[in-house]
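Human: Note token order:
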Amino acid sequence: LCMGCMSETGNEQVCSVCGFDSNTYNEAGALPLRTLLAGRYAVGKAVSVTGEGFNYIGFDTVTESVVKIAEYFPAGLCGRNADGSVEIKGDTAYVYNEGIIRFIELNKKLGALANVSALYRVIDIFEVNKTAYAITEYQPGISLKEFLIRNGGLLTWDQVRPLFLPLMNSLKTLHENGIVHG
């Protein structure tokens, strides 16, 4: 499988679908490509990093489907050991552990809201490597930022209108369930 898009590569070094080079490595701090989590989820390319951690494309070897893997790995609070486990830096254990608890609680709440159209369905939540992971369904696409760049920085009302009502309804449901999106 291509670790950039999880398409079959036919043993080619460069993926014909997404152009990912199989000799590429994830950025420093991220899990290595092909790491197997919970005996089930193969880690692919780190697609984004936030203050909370890494987001990877992944592959569920049980359902044979592409997934998104969110890893709690807060910048500045921890580092990665050679075995893939997390090492908490200095005296940040309390803050780090509070963050894991919030990460897990948030993903459990999101998992309970499977009927909200604008949310990715949470498939699994688990702790391993001294951190926590949330597995969600994967929806290919581009970010709003990338869309705006490609669209000259503008959205027309005709482009926004079909998104607006489902987005507002989803935010309302999140707020009603104690989840405030920043």
Remarks:
- The longest strand covers residues 41-49.
- The chain has a mean pLDDT of 90.
- The helical segments are 93-111, 144-150, 157-176.
- The beta strands are 36-37, 41-49, 53-60, 65-72, 78-80, 86-88, 122-128, 131-137.
